[in-house]
Structure formats: C-alpha cells, structure tokens
Amino acid sequence: MSRRDYLLRKLGFSLMTVVIVLVINFVLFRILPGDPVRAVIGRNVRISPEVQQALRVQFGLDKPVFPDQFLDTVGQWARGNLGISWSLRRPVKDILLAKLVNTVILIGLGQIFAIVLGVVLGLLAGWKRKSAVDVSALTFSLIAWAVPTFWLGIILLAAGSSWLGLPTGGIVSPANVSKPLYAVLPDLGRHLILPTLTLTILYLGEYMLIMRSSILEVLGEDYILTAKAKGMSQWQVLMRHGLKNAMLPIVTLIALNLGFTVSGAIYIETVFSYDGLGKLFQDALTKQDYPLLQGAFLLLAVSVILANMSADVLYTYLDPRVKAN
Amino acid sequence: MKRRLLCAILLAAGLLAACSRQRASPTTTSSSTQAAVAPTQAPAPSGPAVLHEGWTENPDTLNPAYAYLTQSYTIFDLIYNGLTTESPDGKYVGALAKDWSVAADNVTWTIHLKEGIKWHNGEDLKASDIAWAINAVMEHPDWWSSTSNYANGFKEVTAPDDHMVQIVTEYPIANMEYRLSFLYAVYPPDFNKFTSAEELQNFNNFNAIGTGPFKINVFDKDKGILILDANQDYFDGGPHIDQMIFQKFDNADALIQALKVGDIDLISEVPATAFETIKSYAGVQAVKEDGRYFNELILNSVAETNDPAPKRNPAILDPAVRLAIASAINKQDLVDVVLQGIGSPGDTIVPPTLGGGFWHNPNIQEVKFDIAAANKILDDAGYKAGADGVRTDGKDRLEFRLQFPTQNPVYPRIADMLASNFQQIGIKADVEAVDTDSLTAAVTPTGDYDMVIWGWGPDPDPDFILSVLTTDQFISGGWSDSGYHSPEYDQLYLDQQEAIDKSQRQQIVWKMQDMVFNDRPYIVLYYEKLLQAYRSDRFTGFIESPLGIDIAQSLLNVTAVK
Amino acid sequence: MGEGSTRFKRSLLEFWRTFRANKLGLLGAFLVMTTVIAAILAPALTPYQPTDIMRDAAGHPLTFASPAVHGPLGTDDAGRDVWTELIYGARISLTVGFLAGFIAMVVGSLFGITAGYYGGGIDNALMRTTDVLLVIPDLPLILVLVATLRQMQLHVSPLVVLIFVIGLLYWTSTARLIRSQVLTIKERQFVARARAIGAGDNYIIRKHILPQIMPLIVANTVLIISTAILVESGLAFLGLGDPTQPSWGTILNFAFDRNAITNGAWWFYLPPGLAIVWVSLGCVLLGNVLEEMLNPRLTGHHLEGGEKMVAVQKQDREHERASA
C-alpha cells in the first residue's frame, strides 16, 4: 500500500470516529428527560414561556431532530459553540480553554518523565536480563498495572505532604494565584511533583517493557558482534540499535496512551485538586452540568482521536515497511 | 444571613448570563489584577497586612437580588451595609443609621444616617439612594427574590432630606431592625437599568460598589480568587488590615494543609472531621461557636391538590409512618459520627442559638430513639413485613427514595446511617445523590420525592426559617421544600410578624415550632457548631461570636501580629 | 464415554501440571481465591455487620480509632470496623467485577464468533466498531454515560448501572481475540469435514468451535474481571457508587471526603486500596498464565512480536486496563 493510500485510509477512519463521537454526544444530549430546551438554558425556573419559545426557535428545537437539529448542533460545535455551563453560567468553550494548559503541562511532564525513565530502566533491565534489576523492573510494572490510579495518588499525597511537606493540592500557593504561571515556576514545580510522580509511576512500566524487549531483540542479532568487532562497546551498540528499534512502538504507545492518560488525569486532578480539565470533568459530573460534561468529553475524545491519527502519520515515516511499499 | 447551605436555584439562565456579560466594568480587570499581584507597592515599612481566607466554594453571584450561597452573604457583609447590623452580642446596632425610632402609630419609622458616608467610588451616599434601593425591592418583589421577604408589609419609603429615611409600613412590624440589616444599600446606577427579572438576576455584580469596610479589587472566578481592598474612608473607621484575599480550594484536606503551612490565615468552615487535628497545629487557633446551621430530613408533605400533582409513595403521609421514622433515627449517633461529636441533636426548626435562646421552644418532647417502639408503631398501623423484610399494608410498600444534594461530603454519611436505621424497622430507603439544581427542581414546586436530606442556616430572627414552611412559599423559586400546608400555621406566621409584644411573639413562635415538630414536614436531625480556624501567630483581634470570626465587625478589629 | 473421559482427565492433569509449574499463575490463583473465600465466608470472619458502629464505654461511636485501639484494622469516620467493611466490601467489588466480566464475555464471544465465522460485512462492521471504541477515551465516555443514565431516573441501583456500562464497554478485546481464534479454527479440517457431511452453522459453532475456544474465553474473562474491579473502584471513588452498598472504592471515597489524610488515618485508606491491588494483580497473573497456556498464538511474551500485530494486541490490552 502506498503511503498516500495508507494515510487516506487512516484519515477516513479518524473522521468516521469523530462523527461517531459527535453522534454519541448528540444522542446523550437528547435522551435526557424533559424538554431539550432545558439542556440549553439550564434548569432556571424563572424563564418565561415566551423566552423559552424564542430560545427553542433560536436553537432550532422546533425542527426535526434529524438531520436538521443534528447538523445544526454539529455546526455550532464546529464553530466552537459548546453551549453554556449550567453551574458556571459561562460559555463552555471559555471554561475548557482556561483549564486546558494546566492539564497539558501535567500530562506532558508525566509522559516525558515516564518515557525517559522507562527507556533507561528498560535498557538496564534488558541488558542485565534476569538480574535483580530486571526482575524488580518487571514486578514493578506488573504491580503498577494493578494499582488504582486514584489510590496511588492518595498514598503519594499522604506521604508527600506529611513527610516532605509538599502541598496537598492546587497548582500554585494562594499568594501566587493571581500571577501568571511563568512568573512562579518554582512554586508551580513544587505543586507538580506529586501529581507528576503519580502519572510517571503509572506509565513508566509500559515504556520500560517496550525498551526491554527491544534490547533483547538487539542482543540476539548478529550485528552486535559486527559492531563489537568495529570496536564499539556493548553499551554504545545497545544505545544506538536498541533505541532505534524501540522508537516505533514507543511512538505508537505515546499516542495510544494519551487516551488513558486523559482518564488518569481525571483521577489525579481530583485527588490533588489540580485545576485542569480532569478536575473540571469531575466537577461537572458532581454538579450534573451536562453542557460542560459533554463539551469536555467532546474536547477529550477529539484530541485523543487526533493524537492517534498523528501517531499513524508519524508511523509512516518511522516504519521501514510502509516506506518500502 | 446564611441561607440554605449550598442551596437553591443557582442556575439562573446560563445563556442569558453569558449574553449580559458585556457590561463595561468601571476598572478594567487587567489593571486591577496588576494591583493585586503586587500588594507590596504600598510603601508601608512592614509591608501591607494581607489576610488570606480559604473556603471550598466561591460566591456564585454578588448580586443581592438573587443570592443563595452563604459565601455571597459573607462578601455582602464586607462590601455593603444595611441601615442596621447585628453585632456579635446578638443586639442590633446602627450601620448606616445613626439612630432610628418608630412613631406612636407603630408604623412610621424615622431613620437618621451617619455623617460622611461615601460610596467606594468616592461619591457621597444620600438618603435617597437608600430609599431607591428599598423601593426597588418593594416595586418588584419577584425580581429581588432573595431580599423581598424583608420588605414585606412596607408601604412607603421616602428620603425627606439627604440624611433621613422614612419608612411607613402597612401594619406594625416586630422585627424591623433585623429586616433593615439585610436590605443592603446597593449603588443605584448599578441596578436601575434592568427591565426584567431575568436581566436583573443574571447580573453577577462582580464589580459591586458599596459603602462597606472593604471594596472589591478583583474577582477572578477562573482562578477561584476574590480580592478585597480595605476601604480606608469607611465611615466607622477603616480596617487595620490592607487587603483580604479569598481563595477557593477544591478539597478540604488541601485547605487544611494550606492553613497548617501558613499559606492561608483563616478557614471559614472547618469540617468537623478535621477540627480535633487542627487544634493541635502550632500557631493556629481553632474556634468553636454555637452556630445556626441545622440539617433536616424533609418528608414530602405536598398537598394532594397541588399542581402538578405530587409524585411520591403515599405512605409517607401516614402519621404512623412519620412517627416510626422519627423514632428510628438515632440523632445522637448522627452527631457523634457526622459531626464527630461537635454539635447537638436537633428537635425544632428554630435552633437554640437564635436570639440567645429566646425563640427556641424548650418544651418540645423529643421522640426517643427506640427501634422496638418504632416497630410496634408500624405493627399497630397494620404494616406487616414481607418476604424481603420490607413492610407493607397490602396497598403501600414502605420503600422510599432517600435523596440528598451532591457537593456536601456529609450527606452520603447521613443517608447511609439513616438507611441502616430504617432497615431495622422494615423500611427500605433507596439512597440517591442528586445535584443541587435537579433536586431543587424536583422538590419545589414539583413534589417529586419522598425523603430528602438537606440543611438550613437560618437568619438571626426566627421569621425567615418560619416562613420556609408557609404554604405560599411552595412555588417556583420559593423557599418551601416540604410542601407543608397548614392554614393555621400560615395565620400564625402573619400573627408573629405583627406581634409587637416580644413575649406574645415568643408564644406564637413556640406554637409554630410545636406544629412543625408534630406534623413532621421536617425532622430536624442536629444543630451544628460553627467551626473556624485562624493563624494566631499572624493576626489577632478576631471577635468570636455565633456570627463567625470573618464578619465585618470582627475583621475591622483585626490587626497583624508584628 | 470411557475413552472420552480418560482423554479429558489426561488433558486436565496435564493442564494442572503446567499450571503448577508456573509459579506466577499459582500466586494469581491464590490471590483471587483468598478474596473469593473471604467474601463468601465474611460472616464467619468477623463478629460484626458492616453497618455496626463500634462504641466506647460511654456508648459513643468510636470514630477514627487506630488499630491499636480497635483491632485489627481500626475504625472509620463512622466508627465502623474497617476489617468488616473490607471483607463485606469484597462481596460488592467482586460481584460487580464478575457480573460485568460475564456481560463482557457473553457480548464479546457472541460478536467474536459471529465475525470470525461468517466474515464479510459483519466482520468488517465489528472490526470498525472495536477500532472506534479503542480510540475513544474510556473513562470520560463511561462518566458521561453513567451520568446520563442516572439522570434518566431508571430506578435501579447505581451498581446495576455500573455493571452494565462496564460490561458493555469492555468486550472489544474479547471479541477480537475470539474472532482471530475462530478464523483459524474455521479453516481446520474437522470443520470442513463437518460441513461436508451437511452440518449447519449452528451445529458447527456449538459442537466444534465453542469447545475449542472456551478455555480462551475463560482466560480472557479473568482478565476482564480485573479491569472491571479497577474501573468500579475508580467510579465509586468519584462518587458514582452506592453509599449503602460500600465497595472498596466507596470506602476510599468516604476516606478521602472525610479527611482521613488530614487525620493520618492510614488504616482507613490503605487496606481498601491494597485489597484492590491484591485481587486485580491476582486476576492479571492468573489470566495471563491461563491465556499463555491455552492460546497457541500467544506463546512467548506478547511484546516480543515486533510486528504491527503487536501494536494491535497492545491496543487491546491497553483498552482492557481501563486506566483505573
């Protein structure tokens, strides 16, 4: 298959997935009991019937559900109009944008640490196979699999705050809240330690396993002898070939992980009262704020789909077989 | 005034709110943020004294016309003034008013203002501004839904000159001082441009201009931060501290940790589960005061003739079932568990702290917790246990919805304990957490519920909490959630408003408590204490009272520890 | 019957021998079985009911009592015995896990067999559906679904909602696995022979295919159960459980909301989490070993394949784990 065909197919699939997400979101929005106008205006009892009717017309709720209303709603979403949050009484889009950066910082840092540490530990584990390092690395990733995210967060929160005096929540100290984040980096860093650590521990194991198997493969190949003959140390060989070998699955994993990291962020931000999208999602859930909940879902789902697609694009550049064809 | 805990119809039309956000603010947000960022600009040698207060919820609005959260009233108290105010000892003193008196006819009130009162923008406050603010409420009681109660029975409010307000009422009013304390002097230009209830109620007033000892610097909801600057021109003398910063925390543990390490100086509501631990912190003073909050179990008492017809298990109306439910509730256990022992079992809707205990009916004979007695009541009433242990009289099964609002971590624990008590008498409770707004909509005026756990923080005068159970409050946007409807009670409510003689009024108020206790639209579970804490190594001078240490009069007295 | 039963017995013995040789599998079985036994024998393991309140001499509830004051695991904020809550909580957590796992198994097998056996359009539709489900972040989807279902006032226990939502979202990996297995079995001689002598599709599926893939289904179900338990605990922690039917996640929800951390009440928040790790680790070990033993295609580490297939399998596995 040519690269173009491959990319087109992936693009088609992503588009289809986005459409399905839109449909899910739309349908859930509509099966809520009661008048759909409520979904737009909230439960305010003080809106006169005339105003309600006007809203109904404005939002096309007097038209058939499909295709008119669906297309109209999707059109609104496409223009970034995700409705008004019931609990915060502000456009959902503005709220989401305000929290997005914080979550990106958290997830980004967590992933970077997980990848770096995972690669290093995986290298060690593969190199010294069946050694203490290897066995403990494997045990660690196995247990990390079985630990509930939020509980790990609670444990780290309790330990970190009582023994190390780390903050139990928030993004910055109260004194720094009104300052821009770049001005209070040390404080931000202190608040990020525990949540980032939680994310790192959770996702470290997978990168480690990938790196490990990649190293094992390299160790079994002939060229390690050739390379040695050329005077390279075993370590150099492992670094060069092992890393190269592991690139492809790691890139795939990063993209795939994004979806799960997003889920993890919901728990972690809740535990550490970290002011990001995950916390927002949980708040919207508690307050049963449907426009906000669905706006957040739409944003999360679409970004994960896009990330998957970009992984696929990257894939075509990294995978020799796709290139060859 | 502390109203329904985290209550009510918070959601004025979101859409309209968003549309009306274009209001130009007198000071641009960016510049005021700048000022907040660098409080050190002030050249004071020891730096400005900034008091950080932490809480777990922000005010949703600063508009007195439509405010239901306790937090909104905390801020009103600091930025606005009424003519009078309740002082920490429970007596009413003048705020904007220098003195007030009622004529021999008992309906004509004359109020003189203090000298030199200025709005936060520097303009002089005139008596006509106050008259305008009260008239606005009288003209459109439905627009000003959270204050209209206080102007009930007002006939005419005028300002004969710049320093005098005259109020004429339709009938003698017993609790005038209390009412005047909640009729805030709002800045007329901020409020005179609205043409409908929706417009007014969706106005969030985040740049409120008042006359109070603190003025708004900035309210950044995204960051959960509200900054107040000291009003040095305050007519009673400005605060000794320079700034107050209110910071929202998303969970109580984070809030407490912040106090422990000194990131904040004051917690307005300490969870009972953490109070003992906080007491042990160095440099922290934990304060326990008699509060006014109580939690109750609401039993659906909506009239059959209500429109729409109530949706409920009709067995909830059976007095025997109600009595059995009351006898099966172990209130002492609830106090010991939910409040960790810091509180007392409740009986009537008027907490013993109101008016120094004057209004609380001491003669109520509490229903004793007795599972065997409760079982016997149900046996005698003809409810026999079915195969699954749930009682039925052949017509109605004793299975009830037991709902509570989300967002308050104590309610699931209460629900869980009540359900386990009820199970022992063959009553099945289906526990369900519902968000505040859905629950409000399901309760008033729909009547679609069986039992609900909720709470109130009554006003200092019993009038407000008594009004909650009157028939005509069971309307859209009204205060009644039980749907209690008793013509006799309603008449007594009117009578107590007009009873000028205090002991006569007391008798009526006691009678009303009796009625509610015996008819059981509410089963009052417990009275809470007010738990607060502050950094005593940083600030001193707080006045401890049931009103809390963070009221204006206390904060005016606070100084930074050098 | 004689010959058949001997052969069955022999294969069973062989299975047991291999299984026993695998220490991790044994450990997994131990972890799972102890939990199941504790759940079943709960009344025998504690003198209390989970709703009983421990009291001091004066009759007041003994709240936040440390294990030193009240053994073996102290009490929670309501004065309830944490050990009792823990073993009764096992009942709720395991029930949700098993039922949700069962639903996922049935749905997954049904789709997997249908797609693998009939192929064509059905197969295509199934594969696309699972592709889509794999890409949508699962926790947000679950939360939106649960929230919407609750709003619809179905008048069922929150636990039932959780069981169905979890069960109906985590069948995709089973379906894919079964499908690929059915694809290979379908091509084998005995199927062709059966078809040649005129056996119907139903008959072939029931008599020839199902018995072949049954062990695989079982192994996969064990894995899904661990996922279901993890997801349930997470949802209960977020407050979507039933406070009157406390699972481990619900206990942790209470611990977090009622300031167990501020109070240093480690006995309140450590044991439920350890219990979750205990049983989900058990399921993973057990499930992986069963799968390795029963699925010829999975010999060797699943990450050591290197091909694109690895990514797909990885995806399946990833999706299973749910992120809890």
* Biggest chain contact: A-C, 62 and 58 residues
Percent strand of chain B: 15-25%
What is the domain total for the residues of chain C?
1
CATH topology type of chain C: MetI-like fold
Straight-line N-to-C gap of chain B: 33 Å
- Could you describe the largest sheet of chain C, including whether it forms a barrel? none
Rg of chain B = 24 Å
Number of strands of chain C: 0
**Which regions of chain B contain 5 or more consecutive residues with pLDDT less than 50?**
1-45
Q: Could you tell me the number of beta strands of chain B?
A: 21
Q: Tell me, briefly, the overall form of chain B.
A: globular
Helicity range of chain C: over 70%
Classification by helices and strands of chain C = mainly alpha
CATH homologous superfamily of chain C, by name? MetI-like
Helix residue percentage of chain B: 25-40%
Distance between the termini of chain C: 47 Å
Order of helices and strands of chain C: HHHHHHHHHHHHH
Reported CATH architecture of chain C = Orthogonal Bundle
Which range does the strand content of chain C fall in?
Answer: under 5%
What oligomeric state do the depicted chains represent? heterotrimer
Which structural traits does this protein have?
heterotrimer; A: 325 residues; 0% strand; globular; B: 562 residues; alpha+beta; eleven-stranded mixed sheet; four-stranded antiparallel sheet; 18 helices; disordered N terminus
Characterization of this structure:
The complex is a heterotrimer of chains A (325), B (562) and C (324). Chain A is an all-alpha fold and 325 residues long. Chain A is built from 13 helices and no strands. In chain A, α5 crosses α8 (185-220) and α5 packs across α12. Chain A starts with a helix and ends with a helix. Mean pLDDT of chain A is 80; it is low at 42-46. Chain B is α+β, with helices and mostly antiparallel strands. Chain B is 29% helix and 21% strand. Chain B contains 18 helices and 21 strands. Chain B has helices at residues 14-19, 29-37, 70-79, 127-139, 176-182, 188-191, 197-202, 252-261, 272-279, 319-327, 331-338, 371-380, 410-423, 436-443, 463-467, 487-498, 502-519, 552-555, and strands at 50-55, 84-86, 92-94, 97-102, 108-113, 154-161, 164-169, 214-220, 225-230, 243-248, 266-267, 284-299, 343-345, 384-385, 391-392, 399-405, 428-434, 451-456, 522-535, 539-540, 559-560. In chain B, the strands form 5 sheets. In chain B, strands 1, 8, 9, 10, 11, 12, 13, 16, 17, 18 and 19 form an 11-stranded mixed sheet that branches. A 4-stranded antiparallel sheet of chain B has the order 4-5-7-6, with helices on one face. In chain B, α10 packs antiparallel against α12 (371-380) and α16 (487-498) packs antiparallel against α17. Chain C has 324 residues and is mostly helical. Chain C has helices spanning 2-21, 23-40, 42-45, 82-118, 120-135, 138-151, 158-169, 172-186, 189-196, 201-240, 248-257, 266-294, 308-321. In chain C, α2 packs across α4, α4 runs antiparallel to α10 and α10 (201-240) packs parallel to α11. The radius of gyration of chain C is 23 Å and the shape is elongated. Chain C starts with a helix and ends with a helix. The chains are: A mainly alpha (325), B alpha+beta (562), C mainly alpha (324).
